[in-house]
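Structure (tokenized):
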């Protein structure tokens, strides 16, 4: 998330009441998660296991819970609880704003777009031309839909990321202030859920078609012209390249990359990054021919055991 204007390191430190290492006037342009940070962004880290990753990332402002040597060209915000203070910044720069109307006055809706009854369109939502939003769809604040998009009944776009920190008293949620961006010519089926990014965008690429009852996690990027069948669940921070096909009930773990034109047969379980231009089956997902070979070998086990008697 980029801030509306550039802030100084001193100004950011004042918002969260923490010490800092670096020049008072060091420019701060935004905040983001580690996989999408750019120079000028704040990234937070609260575990020694990830200190080096954060300090060596593209982010130039590191919100950290230990005073460490500051890399050249970067600055530090020293906090006793970076998770809490990252939430404070999220709430400061993009607070929740309640609505008392079905379609927010700040929403922008393109020419010839149809919005059926009982929909909710949140603050600062942008919807393009020639779209059809069927009944009982909810589109949360700041989401962006392109032209010729169809959203079927009961779908929810832009709900919070499923991202929690375990504390002694329970789970503490990382606040979501990102968006969902749906590009041109996308169809989303009924009762789907597409979560917004924590600070960035969850993206559905141009021409992608989604069946009913699909879950897309936060900050995931779905490429162009993908096909996603019913009851598929894709976790957060996944990259799905162009023209990938997921058949029914495929499950994808977080943080993996799926190569272009890969095909996953029903009930595949994807637990690691996989190359494109191949057909996969099984759990864990395996190239389909190899999966069939393994299945044939398993069928022969009783015969082999009989011979060993």
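Design, position by position:
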């Amino acid at each position: 998330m980029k801030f509306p204007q550039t802030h100084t390191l001193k100004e950011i430190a004042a918002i969260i009441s923490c010490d800092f290492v670096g020049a008072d006037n060091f420019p701060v342009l935004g905040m983001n998660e580690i996989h999408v940070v750019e120079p000028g962004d704040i990234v937070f880290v609260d575990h020694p296991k990830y200190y080096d990753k954060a300090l060596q990332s593209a982010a130039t402002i590191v919100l950290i819970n230990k005073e460490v040597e500051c890399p050249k060209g970067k600055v530090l915000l020293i906090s006793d609880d970076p998770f809490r203070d990252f939430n404070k910044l999220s709430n400061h720069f993009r607070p929740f704003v309640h609505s008392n109307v079905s379609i927010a006055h700040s929403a922008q809706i393109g020419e010839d777009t149809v919005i059926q009854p009982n929909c909710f369109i949140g603050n600062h939502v942008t919807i393009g031309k020639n779209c059809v939003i069927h009944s009982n769809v909810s589109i949360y604040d700041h989401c962006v839909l392109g032209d010729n998009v169809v959203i079927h009944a009961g779908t929810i776009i832009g709900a919070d990321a499923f991202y929690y920190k375990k504390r002694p008293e329970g789970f503490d949620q990382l606040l979501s202030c990102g968006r969902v961006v749906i590009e041109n010519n996308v169809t989303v089926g009924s009762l789907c859920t597409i979560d917004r990014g924590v600070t960035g965008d969850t993206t559905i690429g141009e021409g992608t078609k989604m069946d009913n009852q699909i879950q897309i996690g936060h900050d995931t990027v779905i490429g162009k012209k993908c096909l996603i069948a019913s009851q598929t669940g894709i976790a957060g921070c996944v990259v799905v390249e162009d023209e990938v096909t997921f058949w029914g009930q495929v499950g994808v773990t977080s943080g993996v990359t799926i190569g272009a034109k890969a095909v996953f047969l029903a009930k595949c379980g994807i637990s690691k990054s996989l190359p494109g231009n191949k057909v996969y089956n099984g759990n864990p997902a395996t190239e389909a021919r190899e999966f069939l070979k393994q299945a044939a070998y398993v069928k022969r086990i009783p015969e082999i055991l009989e011979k060993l008697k």
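Reviewer-requested clarification: The chain has a mean pLDDT of 96. Residues 82-93 form the longest helix (12 residues).
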